[in-house]
Write a structure and sequence with these properties.
Layout lengths: L2 H8 L7 H10 L1 H4 L1 H6 E6 L15 E5 L4 E7 L6 E2 L1 H10 L7 E6 L3 E2 L1 H9 L4 E4 L1 H9 L16
Parallel strand pairs: 3-5, 4-6, 5-7
Antiparallel strand pairs: 1-2, 2-3
Length: 157
């Protein structure tokens, strides 16, 4: 069982709600891995972040970096074989296209990203950093995550 599978099986007594488990994990990212701790000063769920401007419309969490940048985060709890499409990202991208949002991150339980959303993530300003299943597994088991690898996760054709 991979660390991500263990998270989804044991992090919450209600395994029928994997998205809630991933959202809860996202809030712990600065404590989950040294790379994240060096990048993120704090993370809040959308519901408790002091700058919330509306109900949850695609942003699941918000992080502040050590240099006071604001990062919007979306959690995606998908089967490992699921391929993320543009449709999966549209609400998050449109909701996070606001003044004061300095970056975007998608945390997903799959490593598969179709070609068009991979290009969308890279071309947006600010771009979308991808923290996919491989990164989750490494964060959860304490392995190193090479700097920059989250941004350059493989696209699927």
């Amino acid at each position: 069982m991979t660390p991500t599978e263990t998270l989804l099986a044991t992090h919450d007594p209600e395994p029928v709600f994997p998205l809630l488990q991933v959202k809860r994990f996202v809030v712990t990212l600065p404590r989950a891995h040294p790379l994240m701790a060096s990048a993120l000063a704090d993370v809040w769920s959308w519901a408790v972040w002091p700058g919330t401007w509306a109900p949850d419309c695609g942003i699941d969490a918000v992080a502040h970096t050590h240099d006071a940048r604001t990062i919007s985060i979306q959690a995606k709890a998908y089967a490992p074989c699921h391929c993320i499409t543009n449709t999966d990202l549209y609400t998050f991208v449109s909701e996070s296209a606001r003044p004061g949002v300095d970056g975007r991150m998608v945390v997903a339980t799959t490593d598969h990203l179709a070609t068009n959303p991979a290009r969308l993530c890279a071309d947006l300003n600010p771009p979308v950093t991808r923290f996919l299943r491989l990164h989750l597994d490494r964060a959860l088991d304490g392995s190193s995550i090479p700097a920059g690898s989250a941004r350059h996760a493989p696209a699927r054709r």
